[in-house]
Design a protein that fits this description.
Layout lengths: L3 H9 L7 E5 L12 E2 L9 E2 L3 E4 L7 E8 L13 E5 L11 E4 L4 E3 L2 E3 L11 E2 L10 E3 L7 H9 L4 E5 L4 E6 L3 E2 L10 E2 L2 H12 L4 E6 L3 H14 L2 E5 L10 H7 L3 E5 L3 E2 L5 E5 L2 E6 L3 H19 L10 E4 L4 E2 L5 E9 L2 E4 L16 E5 L5 E2 L4 E6 L1
Parallel strand pairs: 5-6, 13-16, 13-17, 14-15, 17-21, 19-24
Antiparallel strand pairs: 1-12, 2-11, 3-10, 4-6, 4-7, 5-9, 8-9, 18-20, 20-21, 22-28, 23-27, 24-25, 24-26, 26-28
């Protein structure tokens, strides 16, 4: 049995088999760029107006202009302005030849084809977006390792980028063990429970950007668990078991991984919840055996599997998703294990919630993340800084 820090170091140092894929911009949200992106065009690609108003050639002390035409967004006016002339212009419309300034429509008085404005209200170059002022063709606009966000999609689309190179998410198989497990559309008999772990893990995986998820339920039978793992290893990059990893008479995951020649990375950690956590690898593929209780499943997934997947997808800070925050109340730990506690952040402090038992999911509905109380600490005083892992 090893400690939490050692287990995380083992996973962090894995040589994960990342793979680049070309993705359409619309499908790349949440993925990490595997290569830098360069602008295809100058942006703006033409001098244009930042306001509704009048475009003109600026001259000092001039306050009257003759309006000779109009320029709207999407148009291509064949107008060449002379001194003393202006065109009615709208936001985003191209500046006509000879124009170098725009005055807002609110700053002028128009009478017929003439506009009047007070001295000082017009400035040279005012309200003009010049070609290439955002970026020029060939400029790097996104670096490798950046996560594709809705804002980045807007940026890349504006320069004509339709495809990007990203790191592919792993294909994941979820193997839910337990004779007592029933799906949500089934009627429970005495001694049976609903499958809470499967939907929760699918939701987490989808949130992380995993698109290829294969759920599989198996009975607590040695051959069924073994064959389920064999099948999953053939079709997936990462396999997650829930339940069956302890040492009970109906726990067969450990035997299944050994029968499938999976190399053990670690088994059992000095932590609560989730002491009987397993991690192994085979031919670049990873296998995690999580305990069966929902609280333990989510704790182990968030603290170990989640950063592995984020790292697999190219996130450089996958293991750095932790902050230090003061504890709201004293907490005394009665066990010599690292403890992960569901907590809510209010007014800048972490409040440890009631209902920390592994079977109890009520606190998950309120919690913002986990507080970590290290193995060697017994008492943490109110106001002391603790590690907090936000969800």
């Amino acid at each position: 049995m090893i400690g939490v820090t050692q287990a995380k170091r083992i996973l962090r140092e894995l040589n994960l088999p990342r793979k680049k894929i070309s993705s359409s911009l619309s499908q790349a949200i949440g993925y990490v760029l595997a290569e830098p992106v360069y602008s295809k065009i100058d942006v703006p690609s033409f001098d244009n107006s930042a306001m509704d108003g009048y475009a003109f050639f600026w001259e000092e002390n001039r306050s009257t202009l003759q309006v000779i035409g109009e320029s709207s967004a999407g148009s291509s006016p064949e107008i060449a302005l002379q001194k003393g002339e202006a065109v009615r212009i709208f936001t985003g419309a191209p500046l006509p030849k000879g124009a170098n300034s725009v005055i807002m429509q609110e700053k002028v008085v128009r009478k017929g084809d003439e506009i009047y404005f007070e001295g000082g209200e017009a400035e040279l170059g005012k309200h003009v977006r010049y070609r290439g002022s955002q970026c020029q063709a060939g400029d790097q606009i996104a670096q490798a390792g950046a996560k594709v966000s809705p804002g980045m999609v807007s940026l890349l689309a504006s320069v004509g980028v339709a495809q990007v190179e990203v790191w592919e998410a792993p294909r994941v198989s979820l193997i839910i063990t337990g004779n007592e497990i029933k799906e949500l559309d089934e009627v429970l008999s005495p001694g049976q429970i609903y499958n809470a772990n499967g939907p929760a893990l699918v939701a987490w995986l989808q949130q992380l950007g995993v698109r290829k998820i294969t759920p599989l339920s198996v009975r607590d039978e040695k051959e069924a668990v073994k064959e389920g793992l064999t099948e999953a290893l053939e079709s997936s990059d990462l396999v997650i078991f829930t339940g069956g990893i302890s040492v009970g008479d109906y726990d067969f995951v450990k035997e299944a991984v050994e029968a499938n020649q999976v190399q053990e990375l670690f088994y059992k950690l000095k932590q609560r919840p989730g002491k009987p956590l397993y991690a192994g690898q085979k031919s670049g593929k990873l296998v995690f055996g999580l305990p069966g209780n929902p609280g333990s499943v989510l704790s182990c997934f968030i603290n170990y599997v989640k950063p592995v997947i984020r790292s697999w997808m190219g996130e450089a800070q996958a293991w750095e998703d932790v902050v230090e925050i003061p504890l709201a109340e004293d907490f005394e730990k009665k066990i010599p294990l690292t403890q992960f506690l569901k907590a809510e952040v209010k007014h800048g402090k972490a409040h440890i919630l009631q209902g920390q038992e592994s079977f109890n999911l009520i606190a998950f509905g309120m919690a913002d993340g986990f507080v970590e109380i290290p193995e060697e600490m017994q008492l943490v005083k109110s106001g002391e800084l603790v590690k907090f892992y936000p969800w």
